[in-house]
Write a structure and sequence with these properties.
single chain, 307 residues, alpha/beta, Arginase, Chain A, 10 strands, globular, binds zinc ion, HDACs, Ureohydrolase_dom_sf
Length: 307
């Protein structure tokens, strides 16, 4: 079975200003590398559909979702914070970004694909139940995970977050929920400046010092995630795939390269094949060096699709 690649033209229309690193050209950079690497034609392609209000309200507060709907500007930008702005297309893009995960879960459960990558934006893992922040409005991975738990009645799912920033929104939504094991690493003392000393036991988010190498991060994954993941035996695996821990990315200072992303993806696949029949839905989160982003997504997809 193949890997499903989900995106939507609406995800290209959300933009927050020419200066902003979370820009539509990120999707172009990924698409260019899919074509030039020759893997584009080996993937299944689908356009995402809208997440419904009910889908979004499983993890976000009603007042917050109403606020976002009211705040769509007719032109220009509505500034939620200096880094997180809505343009006239943001809400539509956010619905399509969240809907991609739901389409992915349903496609995998129907046997149409083995796993899926959602090339969507705005990203989601910083979006809190009642707050947009860090370029994120709707928590796409949380919407999909909550949908899978409810619709398919899974007893155990895992969320793996390898973005360089802490997935604070996702952590807040599932802290203490024993159906969920979240594993992440993040560069300490950068945005969103979360401290993880007293995490609930279903949260394995590990701080990493600036300038850590890919080798150090691989060791952390091996020592701190893998035993727990194999023991937990998730029935479905969700991935917050941010590529901003890449050594060429200027938003952080870690030293990963494409081979490290391929290796981490292989670990994720091994967990999914052990207990989840290979079921994985991966979401694009960060990654702001356009060239490194495109190359790293291809490395991730080649492992998912066994190419
Ligand atoms: Zn990030």
């Amino acid at each position: 079975m193949q890997t499903l690649y989900i995106t939507h033209p609406a995800c290209h229309l959300h933009e927050m200003g020419d200066w902003h690193p979370e820009c539509p050209q990120r999707l172009d950079a990924i698409n260019d590398q899919l074509l030039s690497s020759g893997i584009d034609g080996l993937l299944l392609h689908e356009q995402s559909t809208d997440a419904t209000d009910a889908d979004i309200l499983r993890v976000h507060a009603t007042d917050y979702w109403s606020f976002l709907k009211r705040s769509v500007p007719e032109s220009g930008y509505f500034e939620i914070d200096p880094d997180t702005l809505m343009n006239p297309h943001t809400l539509d893009a956010a619905r399509k970004a969240a809907g991609a995960g739901i389409l992915a879960v349903d496609s995998i459960m129907a046997g149409h694909a083995q796993n899926a990558f959602c090339a969507v934006r705005p990203p989601g893992h910083h979006a809190r139940p009642s707050l947009a922040m860090g370029f994120c409005f709707v928590n796409n991975i949380a919407v999909a995970a909550a949908y899978a738990l409810e619709k398919y009645g899974f007893e155990r799912i895992s969320i793996i977050d390898f973005d360089v920033h802490h997935g604070n929104g996702t952590a807040e939504m599932f802290a203490g929920d024993e159906r969920v094991l979240m594993c992440g690493f993040f560069q300490e003392s950068i945005f969103p400046n979360v401290h993880t000393q007293n995490q609930p036991k279903n949260m394995l988010n590990i701080p990493v010092e600036a300038y850590a190498s890919g080798e150090q991060v691989r060791k952390l994954v091996e020592d701190r995630w893998m035993t727990d993941l194999f023991e937990f035996e998730p029935q479905f695996v969700f991935v917050s795939a941010g590529f901003d821990a890449h050594r060429e990315d200027e938003l952080a200072q870690l030293g990963l390269v494409e081979a490290d992303y391929a290796w981490i993806t292989q670990q994720i696949v091994s967990v999914a094949e052990h207990s989840a029949q290979g079921r994985i839905v991966s979401f694009l989160e960060g990654g702001y060096s356009l060239s490194a982003l495109g190359r790293s997504v291809v490395a991730h997809l080649k492992v998912l699709a066994k190419l």
